[in-house]
Protein backbone atom coordinates (compact mmCIF):
# COMPACT_ATOMS: atom_id res chain seq x y z
CA UNK A 1 0.00 0.00 0.00
CA UNK A 2 1.17 3.54 -0.70
CA UNK A 3 2.48 5.80 2.03
CA UNK A 4 0.93 9.28 2.38
CA UNK A 5 4.04 10.83 0.79
CA UNK A 6 3.89 8.43 -2.16
CA UNK A 7 0.17 9.09 -2.62
CA UNK A 8 0.78 12.84 -2.62
CA UNK A 9 3.51 12.42 -5.25
CA UNK A 10 1.13 10.37 -7.42
CA UNK A 11 -1.63 12.98 -7.46
CA UNK A 12 0.84 15.79 -8.15
CA UNK A 13 2.20 13.74 -11.05
CA UNK A 14 -1.32 13.20 -12.41
CA UNK A 15 -1.91 16.97 -12.31
CA UNK A 16 1.31 17.60 -14.26
CA UNK A 17 0.26 15.09 -16.93
CA UNK A 18 -3.18 16.73 -17.21
CA UNK A 19 -1.66 20.18 -17.72
CA UNK A 20 0.70 18.77 -20.33
CA UNK A 21 -2.30 17.23 -22.13
CA UNK A 22 -3.93 20.66 -22.41
CA UNK A 23 -5.99 21.15 -19.23
CA UNK A 24 -6.27 24.73 -17.99
CA UNK A 25 -6.73 23.45 -14.43
CA UNK A 26 -7.10 20.11 -12.70
CA UNK A 27 -7.36 18.28 -9.42
CA UNK A 28 -6.64 14.66 -8.59
CA UNK A 29 -7.43 12.32 -5.71
CA UNK A 30 -6.10 8.92 -4.82
CA UNK A 31 -7.49 6.32 -2.46
CA UNK A 32 -5.34 3.40 -1.39
CA UNK A 33 -6.10 0.90 1.32
CA UNK A 34 -6.39 -2.60 2.69
CA UNK A 35 -8.96 -4.28 4.92
CA UNK A 36 -9.34 -7.54 6.82
CA UNK A 37 -12.53 -9.06 8.21
CA UNK A 38 -13.68 -12.25 9.94
CA UNK A 39 -17.28 -13.34 10.45
CA UNK A 40 -18.49 -16.21 12.62
CA UNK A 41 -21.82 -17.88 13.33
CA UNK A 42 -22.75 -20.36 16.03
CA UNK A 43 -19.15 -20.59 17.13
CA UNK A 44 -17.68 -21.41 13.72
CA UNK A 45 -15.86 -19.22 11.22
CA UNK A 46 -18.03 -18.40 8.21
CA UNK A 47 -15.78 -16.08 6.25
CA UNK A 48 -12.34 -14.49 6.26
CA UNK A 49 -11.81 -11.69 3.80
CA UNK A 50 -8.99 -9.43 2.76
CA UNK A 51 -9.19 -6.63 0.20
CA UNK A 52 -6.75 -4.12 -1.24
CA UNK A 53 -7.45 -1.19 -3.51
CA UNK A 54 -5.67 1.67 -5.22
CA UNK A 55 -7.58 4.08 -7.43
CA UNK A 56 -6.98 7.56 -8.83
CA UNK A 57 -9.55 10.11 -9.93
CA UNK A 58 -8.70 13.04 -12.20
CA UNK A 59 -10.88 16.10 -12.90
CA UNK A 60 -9.81 18.53 -15.61
CA UNK A 61 -11.05 21.93 -16.77
CA UNK A 62 -10.83 23.41 -20.24
CA UNK A 63 -12.25 26.88 -19.85
CA UNK A 64 -15.62 26.40 -18.15
CA UNK A 65 -15.94 22.83 -19.37
CA UNK A 66 -14.90 19.91 -17.19
CA UNK A 67 -14.73 16.12 -17.12
CA UNK A 68 -13.83 13.48 -14.58
CA UNK A 69 -12.22 10.10 -15.10
CA UNK A 70 -10.79 7.38 -12.86
CA UNK A 71 -8.41 4.43 -13.15
CA UNK A 72 -6.85 1.62 -11.14
CA UNK A 73 -3.87 1.21 -13.50
CA UNK A 74 -1.42 3.87 -12.30
CA UNK A 75 1.49 3.08 -14.59
CA UNK A 76 2.99 6.21 -16.23
CA UNK A 77 1.80 5.32 -19.73
CA UNK A 78 -1.71 4.66 -18.43
CA UNK A 79 -1.78 8.01 -16.63
CA UNK A 80 -0.77 9.80 -19.84
CA UNK A 81 -3.65 8.08 -21.63
CA UNK A 82 -5.98 8.96 -18.75
CA UNK A 83 -5.06 12.64 -18.93
CA UNK A 84 -5.51 12.74 -22.72
CA UNK A 85 -8.94 11.14 -22.48
CA UNK A 86 -10.06 13.47 -19.70
CA UNK A 87 -9.07 16.57 -21.68
CA UNK A 88 -10.77 15.24 -24.81
CA UNK A 89 -13.95 14.61 -22.80
CA UNK A 90 -13.85 18.07 -21.23
CA UNK A 91 -13.64 19.78 -24.62
CA UNK A 92 -16.96 18.14 -25.57
CA UNK A 93 -18.72 18.84 -22.24
CA UNK A 94 -21.24 21.68 -21.80
CA UNK A 95 -20.05 24.88 -20.17
CA UNK A 96 -20.79 25.37 -16.48
CA UNK A 97 -20.31 28.91 -15.20
CA UNK A 98 -20.17 27.75 -11.58
CA UNK A 99 -17.64 24.92 -11.93
CA UNK A 100 -13.98 25.34 -11.03
CA UNK A 101 -11.40 24.77 -8.38
CA UNK A 102 -11.72 26.28 -4.91
CA UNK A 103 -10.56 29.89 -4.50
CA UNK A 104 -6.75 29.89 -4.38
CA UNK A 105 -6.61 32.31 -1.45
CA UNK A 106 -8.75 29.94 0.63
CA UNK A 107 -6.55 26.84 0.22
CA UNK A 108 -5.00 25.20 3.27
CA UNK A 109 -1.48 26.53 3.76
CA UNK A 110 1.30 24.80 5.66
CA UNK A 111 1.28 21.33 7.16
CA UNK A 112 -1.77 19.09 7.25
CA UNK A 113 -3.10 18.89 10.86
CA UNK A 114 -2.37 15.62 12.69
CA UNK A 115 -5.68 14.34 14.07
CA UNK A 116 -4.36 10.99 15.35
CA UNK A 117 -6.45 8.95 12.92
CA UNK A 118 -3.91 6.19 12.22
CA UNK A 119 -2.67 3.59 14.68
CA UNK A 120 -0.86 1.75 11.83
CA UNK A 121 -2.53 -1.50 12.95
CA UNK A 122 -4.46 -3.95 10.81
CA UNK A 123 -4.18 -6.99 13.03
CA UNK A 124 -4.31 -10.57 11.79
CA UNK A 125 -7.11 -13.09 11.18
CA UNK A 126 -6.49 -14.88 14.48
CA UNK A 127 -7.01 -11.67 16.49
CA UNK A 128 -10.15 -10.74 14.58
CA UNK A 129 -11.52 -14.27 14.88
CA UNK A 130 -11.07 -14.16 18.65
CA UNK A 131 -12.95 -10.85 18.89
CA UNK A 132 -15.79 -12.02 16.67
CA UNK A 133 -16.21 -15.27 18.63
CA UNK A 134 -16.06 -13.44 21.94
CA UNK A 135 -18.78 -11.03 20.84
CA UNK A 136 -21.08 -13.77 19.54
CA UNK A 137 -20.49 -15.99 22.57
CA UNK A 138 -21.40 -13.15 24.93
CA UNK A 139 -24.57 -12.43 22.95
CA UNK A 140 -25.64 -16.08 22.88
CA UNK A 141 -25.01 -16.40 26.61
CA UNK A 142 -27.75 -13.89 27.42
CA UNK A 143 -30.78 -15.85 28.75
CA UNK A 144 -33.55 -15.82 26.17
CA UNK A 145 -31.33 -15.64 23.07
CA UNK A 146 -32.32 -18.55 20.83
CA UNK A 147 -30.33 -18.12 17.63
CA UNK A 148 -27.56 -16.08 16.09
CA UNK A 149 -26.97 -14.21 12.87
CA UNK A 150 -23.30 -14.06 13.78
CA UNK A 151 -20.48 -11.93 15.04
CA UNK A 152 -17.84 -10.08 13.09
CA UNK A 153 -14.64 -8.13 13.54
CA UNK A 154 -12.76 -6.09 11.01
CA UNK A 155 -9.98 -3.60 10.48
CA UNK A 156 -8.91 -1.34 7.64
CA UNK A 157 -6.20 1.19 6.85
CA UNK A 158 -6.55 3.76 4.09
CA UNK A 159 -4.55 6.56 2.51
CA UNK A 160 -6.23 9.60 0.97
CA UNK A 161 -4.46 12.27 -1.06
CA UNK A 162 -5.61 15.35 -2.97
CA UNK A 163 -3.74 17.80 -5.18
CA UNK A 164 -4.84 20.77 -7.27
CA UNK A 165 -3.13 22.59 -10.11
CA UNK A 166 -3.26 25.90 -8.24
CA UNK A 167 -1.19 25.01 -5.23
CA UNK A 168 -2.65 22.47 -2.81
CA UNK A 169 -1.39 18.99 -2.04
CA UNK A 170 -2.10 16.93 1.06
CA UNK A 171 -2.41 13.35 2.23
CA UNK A 172 -3.23 11.45 5.39
CA UNK A 173 -3.72 7.92 6.68
CA UNK A 174 -6.57 6.56 8.78
CA UNK A 175 -7.40 3.24 10.39
CA UNK A 176 -10.74 1.81 11.44
CA UNK A 177 -11.55 -1.12 13.71
CA UNK A 178 -14.95 -2.65 14.43
CA UNK A 179 -16.83 -5.38 16.30
CA UNK A 180 -20.47 -6.40 15.87
CA UNK A 181 -22.94 -9.09 16.87
CA UNK A 182 -26.52 -9.84 15.80
CA UNK A 183 -28.77 -12.39 17.53
CA UNK A 184 -32.39 -13.49 17.80
CA UNK A 185 -34.57 -14.11 20.83
CA UNK A 186 -37.95 -15.80 21.25
CA UNK A 187 -39.45 -18.87 19.69
CA UNK A 188 -39.82 -19.83 16.03
CA UNK A 189 -42.46 -17.74 14.36
CA UNK A 190 -42.15 -14.97 16.95
CA UNK A 191 -38.45 -14.21 16.98
CA UNK A 192 -37.06 -10.73 17.46
CA UNK A 193 -33.66 -9.59 16.19
CA UNK A 194 -31.30 -6.92 17.43
CA UNK A 195 -27.64 -6.07 17.18
CA UNK A 196 -24.80 -4.03 18.62
CA UNK A 197 -21.57 -2.75 17.17
CA UNK A 198 -18.69 -0.48 17.99
CA UNK A 199 -16.12 1.24 15.78
CA UNK A 200 -12.95 3.16 16.60
CA UNK A 201 -9.95 4.62 14.81
CA UNK A 202 -7.54 2.99 17.26
CA UNK A 203 -7.84 -0.65 18.22
CA UNK A 204 -7.21 0.11 21.89
CA UNK A 205 -10.26 2.39 21.89
CA UNK A 206 -12.59 -0.47 20.94
CA UNK A 207 -15.09 -1.60 23.54
CA UNK A 208 -14.43 -5.12 24.85
CA UNK A 209 -16.07 -7.66 22.55
CA UNK A 210 -17.93 -9.13 25.54
CA UNK A 211 -19.70 -5.80 26.15
CA UNK A 212 -20.71 -5.47 22.49
CA UNK A 213 -22.09 -9.01 22.43
CA UNK A 214 -23.92 -8.71 25.73
CA UNK A 215 -25.60 -5.52 24.58
CA UNK A 216 -26.78 -7.24 21.37
CA UNK A 217 -28.26 -10.13 23.35
CA UNK A 218 -29.99 -7.93 25.91
CA UNK A 219 -31.51 -5.76 23.19
CA UNK A 220 -32.92 -8.79 21.35
CA UNK A 221 -34.41 -10.34 24.49
CA UNK A 222 -36.03 -7.05 25.51
CA UNK A 223 -37.98 -7.00 22.21
CA UNK A 224 -39.68 -10.38 22.64
CA UNK A 225 -43.51 -10.51 22.63
CA UNK A 226 -44.14 -6.96 21.37
CA UNK A 227 -47.55 -5.37 21.55
CA UNK A 228 -49.18 -2.44 19.81
CA UNK A 229 -50.05 1.10 20.81
CA UNK A 230 -53.21 3.11 20.65
CA UNK A 231 -53.24 5.62 17.83
CA UNK A 232 -53.02 9.34 18.36
CA UNK A 233 -50.72 12.28 19.01
CA UNK A 234 -48.21 11.62 21.77
CA UNK A 235 -44.59 12.22 22.84
CA UNK A 236 -41.99 10.10 21.06
CA UNK A 237 -38.54 9.58 22.57
CA UNK A 238 -35.70 8.69 20.19
CA UNK A 239 -32.83 6.47 21.30
CA UNK A 240 -29.49 7.97 20.20
CA UNK A 241 -28.80 5.27 17.64
CA UNK A 242 -31.96 6.20 15.69
CA UNK A 243 -32.03 9.87 16.68
CA UNK A 244 -28.76 10.37 14.82
CA UNK A 245 -30.52 9.52 11.58
CA UNK A 246 -33.22 12.12 12.16
CA UNK A 247 -30.64 14.86 12.73
CA UNK A 248 -28.73 13.56 9.72
CA UNK A 249 -31.69 14.60 7.57
CA UNK A 250 -30.80 18.17 8.46
CA UNK A 251 -27.51 17.88 6.57
CA UNK A 252 -29.26 16.97 3.32
CA UNK A 253 -31.69 19.84 3.68
CA UNK A 254 -28.96 22.46 4.15
CA UNK A 255 -26.54 21.19 1.49
CA UNK A 256 -25.58 23.67 -1.18
CA UNK A 257 -27.04 21.54 -3.97
CA UNK A 258 -30.44 21.35 -2.25
CA UNK A 259 -30.51 25.12 -1.80
CA UNK A 260 -29.39 25.98 -5.34
CA UNK A 261 -31.95 23.54 -6.78
CA UNK A 262 -34.63 24.79 -4.39
CA UNK A 263 -35.36 21.26 -3.20
CA UNK A 264 -35.20 21.75 0.56
CA UNK A 265 -37.88 22.22 3.20
CA UNK A 266 -35.44 24.67 4.82
CA UNK A 267 -34.98 26.78 1.69
CA UNK A 268 -35.86 30.08 3.41
CA UNK A 269 -34.70 29.12 6.90
CA UNK A 270 -31.23 30.72 7.04
CA UNK A 271 -31.02 32.91 10.15
CA UNK A 272 -34.35 31.69 11.50
CA UNK A 273 -35.35 29.58 14.50
CA UNK A 274 -35.63 25.94 13.39
CA UNK A 275 -35.07 24.32 16.82
CA UNK A 276 -36.10 25.41 20.29
CA UNK A 277 -33.87 28.05 21.92
CA UNK A 278 -30.80 26.57 23.60
CA UNK A 279 -30.17 23.81 21.07
CA UNK A 280 -26.72 23.78 19.49
CA UNK A 281 -25.51 21.52 16.67
CA UNK A 282 -21.81 21.43 15.76
CA UNK A 283 -19.68 19.95 13.00
CA UNK A 284 -16.17 19.20 14.29
CA UNK A 285 -13.70 17.82 11.73
CA UNK A 286 -10.79 18.26 14.17
CA UNK A 287 -11.99 15.83 16.83
CA UNK A 288 -8.92 13.67 17.66
CA UNK A 289 -9.33 10.12 16.31
CA UNK A 290 -12.94 10.94 15.37
CA UNK A 291 -14.73 8.54 13.05
CA UNK A 292 -15.24 11.31 10.47
CA UNK A 293 -12.36 13.63 11.27
CA UNK A 294 -10.39 15.06 8.37
CA UNK A 295 -7.59 17.63 8.08
CA UNK A 296 -8.87 19.30 4.89
CA UNK A 297 -11.97 19.16 2.74
CA UNK A 298 -12.45 17.63 -0.70
CA UNK A 299 -11.20 20.77 -2.47
CA UNK A 300 -8.14 21.46 -0.31
CA UNK A 301 -9.73 24.03 1.99
CA UNK A 302 -8.96 24.12 5.72
CA UNK A 303 -11.65 22.80 8.03
CA UNK A 304 -12.53 23.80 11.58
CA UNK A 305 -15.32 23.28 14.13
CA UNK A 306 -18.44 25.17 13.12
CA UNK A 307 -21.79 25.71 14.82
CA UNK A 308 -24.48 24.80 12.29
CA UNK A 309 -27.30 25.60 14.71
CA UNK A 310 -26.75 28.13 17.52
CA UNK A 311 -29.42 28.68 20.18
CA UNK A 312 -31.90 27.02 17.83
CA UNK A 313 -31.03 29.30 14.87
CA UNK A 314 -29.79 27.94 11.54
CA UNK A 315 -26.42 29.65 10.98
CA UNK A 316 -25.04 28.30 7.70
CA UNK A 317 -25.51 26.16 4.62
CA UNK A 318 -23.01 23.40 3.78
CA UNK A 319 -21.21 24.71 0.69
CA UNK A 320 -18.62 23.48 -1.75
CA UNK A 321 -17.09 26.01 -4.13
CA UNK A 322 -19.58 25.51 -6.97
CA UNK A 323 -22.69 25.96 -4.82
CA UNK A 324 -21.05 28.88 -2.98
CA UNK A 325 -20.38 30.69 -6.26
CA UNK A 326 -23.94 30.10 -7.39
CA UNK A 327 -25.31 31.54 -4.13
CA UNK A 328 -22.83 34.41 -3.95
CA UNK A 329 -21.34 33.06 -0.71
CA UNK A 330 -18.05 31.58 0.49
CA UNK A 331 -17.38 27.82 0.65
CA UNK A 332 -17.67 26.43 4.18
CA UNK A 333 -15.04 23.67 4.04
CA UNK A 334 -17.61 20.89 3.60
CA UNK A 335 -16.66 19.73 0.10
CA UNK A 336 -16.48 15.95 -0.12
CA UNK A 337 -14.82 13.98 -2.91
CA UNK A 338 -15.18 10.49 -4.20
CA UNK A 339 -12.88 9.09 -6.84
CA UNK A 340 -15.21 10.05 -9.68
CA UNK A 341 -17.21 13.17 -10.40
CA UNK A 342 -17.33 16.65 -8.96
CA UNK A 343 -17.31 17.38 -5.23
CA UNK A 344 -20.47 17.24 -3.17
CA UNK A 345 -20.79 18.20 0.47
CA UNK A 346 -20.63 16.18 3.69
CA UNK A 347 -20.33 16.81 7.39
CA UNK A 348 -17.64 15.33 9.60
CA UNK A 349 -18.23 14.63 13.31
CA UNK A 350 -21.72 16.11 13.44
CA UNK A 351 -23.41 16.27 16.84
CA UNK A 352 -26.11 17.87 18.93
CA UNK A 353 -24.85 19.16 22.25
CA UNK A 354 -26.31 17.92 25.53
CA UNK A 355 -29.54 19.29 26.90
CA UNK A 356 -30.06 20.03 30.57
CA UNK A 357 -32.18 17.09 31.79
CA UNK A 358 -31.36 13.42 32.47
CA UNK A 359 -33.11 10.79 30.38
CA UNK A 360 -35.17 9.75 33.40
CA UNK A 361 -36.55 13.26 33.72
CA UNK A 362 -37.19 13.52 29.98
CA UNK A 363 -39.35 10.39 30.18
CA UNK A 364 -40.68 10.84 33.71
CA UNK A 365 -43.63 13.10 32.94
CA UNK A 366 -44.88 11.18 29.89
CA UNK A 367 -48.21 9.60 30.70
CA UNK A 368 -48.40 7.67 27.43
CA UNK A 369 -45.82 7.64 24.66
CA UNK A 370 -43.27 5.62 22.74
CA UNK A 371 -39.52 5.09 23.12
CA UNK A 372 -38.19 4.33 19.62
CA UNK A 373 -35.14 2.09 19.19
CA UNK A 374 -35.54 1.01 15.57
CA UNK A 375 -36.74 2.72 12.39
CA UNK A 376 -37.35 1.37 8.91
CA UNK A 377 -38.76 2.53 5.60
CA UNK A 378 -37.86 5.60 3.59
CA UNK A 379 -40.81 7.90 4.21
CA UNK A 380 -38.90 11.19 4.36
CA UNK A 381 -39.42 13.98 1.84
CA UNK A 382 -36.68 16.61 2.17
CA UNK A 383 -38.50 18.90 -0.27
CA UNK A 384 -41.71 19.18 1.78
CA UNK A 385 -40.48 17.97 5.18
CA UNK A 386 -43.09 15.20 5.38
CA UNK A 387 -41.96 12.38 7.67
CA UNK A 388 -43.43 8.89 8.12
CA UNK A 389 -41.42 5.88 9.27
CA UNK A 390 -42.08 2.39 10.51
CA UNK A 391 -40.82 1.96 14.05
CA UNK A 392 -40.31 -0.39 16.96
CA UNK A 393 -39.34 0.20 20.55
CA UNK A 394 -41.07 0.35 23.91
CA UNK A 395 -44.23 1.81 25.37
CA UNK A 396 -43.91 4.56 27.96
CA UNK A 397 -46.67 4.55 30.59
CA UNK A 398 -46.88 6.89 33.57
CA UNK A 399 -43.24 7.89 33.23
CA UNK A 400 -41.87 4.36 32.93
CA UNK A 401 -40.66 2.25 29.99
CA UNK A 402 -42.90 -0.81 30.18
CA UNK A 403 -43.28 -3.30 27.30
CA UNK A 404 -41.96 -3.73 23.76
CA UNK A 405 -43.99 -2.51 20.78
CA UNK A 406 -43.54 -3.08 17.07
CA UNK A 407 -45.25 -2.58 13.71
CA UNK A 408 -46.08 1.02 14.46
CA UNK A 409 -45.80 4.15 12.35
CA UNK A 410 -44.62 7.53 13.56
CA UNK A 411 -45.37 10.60 11.47
CA UNK A 412 -45.11 14.37 11.39
CA UNK A 413 -43.31 17.09 9.50
CA UNK A 414 -39.63 17.74 9.99
CA UNK A 415 -40.32 21.45 10.48
CA UNK A 416 -42.59 20.76 13.47
CA UNK A 417 -40.47 17.89 14.79
CA UNK A 418 -37.28 19.98 14.96
CA UNK A 419 -39.06 22.81 16.78
CA UNK A 420 -40.64 20.38 19.28
CA UNK A 421 -37.39 18.55 20.09
CA UNK A 422 -35.96 18.45 23.63
CA UNK A 423 -32.53 16.81 24.16
CA UNK A 424 -31.46 14.92 27.26
CA UNK A 425 -27.98 15.08 28.81
CA UNK A 426 -26.56 11.67 27.81
CA UNK A 427 -24.52 12.50 24.68
CA UNK A 428 -21.85 9.93 23.78
CA UNK A 429 -19.54 10.01 20.76
CA UNK A 430 -20.13 6.56 19.24
CA UNK A 431 -20.97 7.22 15.58
CA UNK A 432 -20.25 9.69 12.80
CA UNK A 433 -23.39 11.62 13.79
CA UNK A 434 -24.10 11.75 17.52
CA UNK A 435 -27.06 13.00 19.53
CA UNK A 436 -28.31 12.59 23.07
CA UNK A 437 -31.63 10.88 23.67
CA UNK A 438 -34.33 13.36 22.68
CA UNK A 439 -38.08 13.79 22.96
CA UNK A 440 -40.46 15.17 20.35
CA UNK A 441 -43.91 16.30 21.40
CA UNK A 442 -47.10 15.63 19.49
CA UNK A 443 -46.05 13.10 16.87
CA UNK A 444 -48.74 11.00 15.25
CA UNK A 445 -48.39 7.34 16.23
CA UNK A 446 -50.43 4.47 14.82
CA UNK A 447 -50.31 0.69 14.78
CA UNK A 448 -49.45 -0.68 11.35
How is this fold's topology laid out?
Elements: H1 4-20, E1 25-41, E2 44-62, E3 65-71, H2 76-92, H3 125-140, E4 145-164, E5 169-185, E6 192-200, H4 209-222, E7 232-238, H5 240-253, H6 256-260, E8 281-283, E9 306-310, E10 313-314, H7 321-327, E11 335-336, E12 344-345, E13 350-352, H8 359-364, E14 368-380, E15 386-397, E16 400-413, H9 414-419, E17 421-423, E18 433-434, E19 438-447
Parallel strand pairs: 7-14, 13-18
Antiparallel strand pairs: 1-2, 1-4, 2-3, 4-5, 5-6, 7-19, 8-9, 8-13, 9-10, 11-12, 14-15, 15-16, 16-19, 17-19
Helix pairs in contact: 1-2, 3-4
The SS-based structural class is alpha+beta
Radius of gyration: 24 Å
Largest sheet: 6 strands, antiparallel
- Mean pLDDT over the residues: 96
Portion of residues in helices?
10-25%
GO cellular component, one term: cytosol
Protein name: Modulator protein
Domain Metalloprotease TldD/E N-terminal: 26-90
InterPro entries: Metalloprtase-TldD/E_C, Metalloprtase-TldD/E_cen_dom, Metalloprtase-TldD/E_N, PmbA, TldD/PmbA_N, TldD/PmbA_sf
Amino acid sequence: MLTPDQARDRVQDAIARARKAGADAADAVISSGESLSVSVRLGAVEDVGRAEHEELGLRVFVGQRSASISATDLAPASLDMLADRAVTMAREAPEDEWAGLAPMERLLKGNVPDLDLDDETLGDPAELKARALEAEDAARAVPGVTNSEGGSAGASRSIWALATSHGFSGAYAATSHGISASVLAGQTGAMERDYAHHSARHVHHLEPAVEVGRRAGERAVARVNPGSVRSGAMPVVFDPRVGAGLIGNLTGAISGSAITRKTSFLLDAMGTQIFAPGIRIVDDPHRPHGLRSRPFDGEGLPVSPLAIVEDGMLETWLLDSASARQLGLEPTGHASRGIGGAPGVAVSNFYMENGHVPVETLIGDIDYGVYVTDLFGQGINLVTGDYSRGAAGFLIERGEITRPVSEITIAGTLQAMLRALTPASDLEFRYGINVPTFRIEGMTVASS
